[in-house]
Amino acid sequence: MGADTTVRHLLLRGDFRRLLTTRLLSQFGDGVFQASLAGTVLFNPQRAADPLDVAAGFAVLLLPYSVVGPFAGVWLDRWSRRQVLLRANLLRAALVAVVAATVLAGVSGVPLYALGLVVFSVTRFVLSALSAGLPHTADEPSLVSANALSTTLGAVATVAGGGVAVGLSRLGVTGDAVYAAVALSAALPYLAASLVVAGFGPGYLGPDDGPDAAGPDRLTARAVVRGMAEGARHARARPPVAAALLAISAHRLCYGVLTLVTLLLFRTGFPDVGGLVPGGLVGLGQAVAAGAAGTVLAAAVTPAAVRRVGRRRWTAGVLAVGGVLQLALGLPFTPPSTVAAAFVLGLVAQGVKICVDTTLQESLDDDLRGRVFSVYDTLVNVSYVTALVAAALLLPPDGRSVAALAVVAGGYLLTAALYAHLTRSHADLP
């Protein structure tokens, strides 16, 4: 079946369209909220942040989710995922209103980061539920295309939400007031997402054994640890899953380093002297847009590439080629080459994610899928924040570091080789 036929088949399914719409609305709201928070912390003339502040902010926002995440995974295997998506989006709508009030009041530092932490924790909960519920809206032969379409359009929706937020921030007064108003506007798509997902029946998105299938016992810390251990054993017993988790974790380490390198280059490393790709915020926006374009291209080519060469070869190949190109495009340290590197990074990130998500969805038992996806999310967050903090401590202020790019390139090449080695007995991965 051709790629177009597969996509048409998916879009003919009302349940897939409903879940996709839920994702798009939810991630559009994420883009609005994330841009408002970034504007508040990084580009608000009433506030200022250096690279260590940025890394610390990411750590405060994401690392604690490594503690919250395991509970989310167990809940996703106990509760109706439809109810989780409905209530989580309603909760986020309420929380962003609190964040908006906090920004308007001029609060900064740990209190603001703590509120952001709560919103981002719920966001990861929503994304895990969307991924865990996707196999209930697509048949197995279409899962690669379903992941390509939904995650890529979701990423585009996030970028679009960020773009709308930037546009809104330029319509009113500067400073805290405008960013508070932008943050509050994120509540609208969250409320709309809740309304759309309410169209599913309570048990439609799983778990397969029905809500509360794991029993009515209270969700204690011991029960969570036990559940996570079960999920980890379930993943470890399946070499393709274990290799996929290794690949995405290593990629996120490299991604974290490259994120801070790009941010520092456009903040201080490139003079804002105009041109096709200027320095400063405009150039950084072009890099983000280039990354989104790479994401779209990955969604377009990955399903066909997987059918042609197999998921194993495609994943290893994308990692290896990505490592070489990051070094080649990054070393000139010019705005155009950095934007080109961002395009490649977007392609690598989405190409790997599509394959990893599909591997987990196909290879895991449904009643443990939520727990493994929470392990997945925790690994992604810890890897990303670890790389950000290390880069903030080691990179020069302008981000120009040949050593950092060499380490990233070597990391990608080593990961490609390890992934190919660990999956060598599964060379028939579809």
TrEMBL record:
Location in or out of the cell: Cell membrane
Membrane topology: Multi-pass membrane protein
Kinase is among the record's keywords: no
Transmembrane segments: 54-76, 88-107, 113-134, 146-166, 178-200, 241-266, 278-302, 314-333, 372-395, 401-422
One Gene Ontology molecular-function label: transmembrane transporter activity
Protein origin, superkingdom: Bacteria
Keywords in alphabetical order: Cell membrane, Membrane, Transmembrane, Transmembrane helix
Primary location class: membrane
Cellular component GO terms held in the UniProt record: plasma membrane
Protein name: Major Facilitator Superfamily protein
